[in-house]
Amino acid sequence: MMCYQFQSSPTRPGSAKFIRATILASLPALAACGGGGGGGAFNNVIAGATPPPPTAPAAPANLSCDDNLKTAFRPDSATSVLLVKQFKAGEPLLLSGTATASTPKAGADTCVVKLLVGPGNPGPAGAPSTTAGIGIEVWLPNASAWNERIRIYGNGGFAGSDETNLAKLGNGGSGSPIPVKAAAVAKGFVISTSDDGHFGNGGAFLMNPDASINTVVWKDFSERAIHELAAKTKLLAKAFYGKPYKYAYWDGFSQGGRQALKMAQVFPDEFDGILAGAPAVNWVRLFSGLVYPQVVMQRDLGAPIATSKLNAVTKSAINACGGAALGFLIDPLSCRYDPTKDAAALCTSVIGNAGVVGSNSDASCVSLAEATAINKMWYGQTKDGSAPDPAIEIDSTPVLNNSNRVWFGQTRGSSLAALAGPTPVSLGTDQLALTLQDPTYATPDFVNAVSNGQDKWKTVSYDQLADATAKGLLLQPQFSNINTDNPDLSAFRARKGKLIMYHGLADNLIMPNGSVNYYSRVLDAMGGLAEVQTFYRFYLIPALSHTGAFVGAPTEPLPQPASGRDEMFTNLQNWVEKGVAPDRIDVSSPDAVVSLPLCMYPKKITYSGSGAATNAGSYTCN
């Protein structure tokens, strides 16, 4: 019989708590742990009796990758082990079914462990709000291959992935595809993901059956799941290898980027290094902004703008602002292209602003009303649906500098069709329903006992959407402070943690100006640029879209950290472990056709005046 004793065991300043495992093979030894009828050395010490003579400590026991781990690993009464599975290098990464040519394979011997951390949220069977707890999946390389580092991946969207599914491997809600996890384990990392406290797509799990706010699951979703993920991964690694980790990292994009900043804000001692990509912070304003383009089209046009028109205007903006040679904009925040004044964009004979007469006879031409609506989308949500003349719009250092502006819009050069397509992004309409506590505002795939979604978002006016945003901000305590926008990172700085944030300038879902705004607030709160850059650095990446970070090598030759590329993480690791702080980072497309520097904010990529526009050597950071 084995008895594991769990206790705090910090091994270096600033490290997280570890688990100390001691194996005791006899009943007297079990009694010494506090069992066996209340006797033993442990109880003697408690009672003040003279302890027995010291003995040599037992060697730590390493857990094996088999079903014995299910009973041997019990860090607390709320945690259970659901599955233990050993994969050999080269084996298909499947728990059931038949492998195909596209099935990912293990890059190294890997032990996969699925955990469930309760208590979850009880309720009616089948209700989205009824959950068993937080699902966690940990992948461990062989002891001889472990690099003594932990790399935890964040989620995407509303998460709800397969971490508790005994027939499928989890992917963190698309936050960490199986091939990415396999590649990290092959490099020696212990990696893990969670389902963020529920299973299934969409945000309906955050609403109780009576349409009220599900505060229990909001807490799991917003912060408890990521805290448990970090804690249980560390405990399992210590028990599995019999020694603590040296460095722990968080690696997250989108929802995972928000989680990254939540870690720095609320759980500053958990990680040595944090990588935050395209963070979904300022949650309520951001998700309201996801709905805004649809409200613009409903209120101003009565119907969506054709995707071909959106794409044509985007291409015109790229060409007008110096991106013709590259096919994308290096600095879209400085672009002031205005289709209401572009004769080549406006349909033939349309009278645009400043007396411009349209000359475009193609099907992709836009009316003045459509061009005006696109300007509104680029500027972002306002309370009354207005937008300033782009010629005087200043967003190079974005602030919410007037009482009418609610949030920022997409950058010129990003794909407008992501938010202004024929259907809304359900992330935004789900949050609208959650804020108003009325499921009918969501799309029909939102399921609730009161009613399923009924697309009532189509009826929302500009001022009603702004009011819903304001209500969501007031509801932050019930939403477990999902906004994740606290600029005070002093505790993370004090523990010597390092944080790199990056955001694509062509992000078609999460507005990069939101990240610029958050970083600017941190600068104001924490002593300015020089002080903040000692622990927190920020990069804006030209051409990087939201989905491009995870779908593999892009079809276009763009300089983006596609799936499996580790430029940003490698720089974080070098900063944490070697003290090499990143500055300029040169990146290139998978086919090496394009290379560009990434400049540490607030520096910008600047063409030197000579050399190919597709070569990083032709640019400086200033």
What does this structure look like?
With about 625 residues, this protein is α/β, with parallel strands linked by helices. About 30% of the residues lie in helices and about 10% in strands. It contains 16 helices and 13 strands. The protein has helices at about 25-30, 40-45, 70, 180-185, 215-240, 255-265, 285-300, 305-320, 370-380, 415-420, 425-435, 460-475, 490-495, 510-525, 530, 565-580; strands at about 80-85, 110-115, 135-140, 150-155, 190-195, 245-255, 275, 500-505, 535-540, 585-590, 595-600, 605, 620. Strands 1-2-3-5-4-6-7-8-9 form a 9-stranded mixed beta sheet, sandwiched between helices. α5 (about 215-240) packs across α6 (about 255-265), α7 packs antiparallel against α9 (about 370-380) and α7 crosses α11 (about 425-435). The longest helix is centred in the middle third of the chain and has 27 residues, at about 215-240. It starts with about 25 loop residues before the first helix and ends with a strand. Residues about 1-60 and about 550-555 have low confidence and may be disordered.
Short description:
This protein is of the alpha/beta class.
Which descriptors apply to this entry?
622 residues, alpha/beta, nine-stranded mixed beta sheet, 13 strands, 28% helix, disordered N terminus
- Radius of gyration, CA atoms, in whole angstroms: 26 Å
Q: Whole-number average pLDDT?
A: 88
Number of helices, where a helix is a run of at least 4 consecutive DSSP H or I residues: 16
Q: What is the overall shape?
A: globular
SSE ordering: HHHEEEEHEHEHEHHHHHHHEHHEHEEEE
Low-confidence blocks of residues: 1-60, 549-557
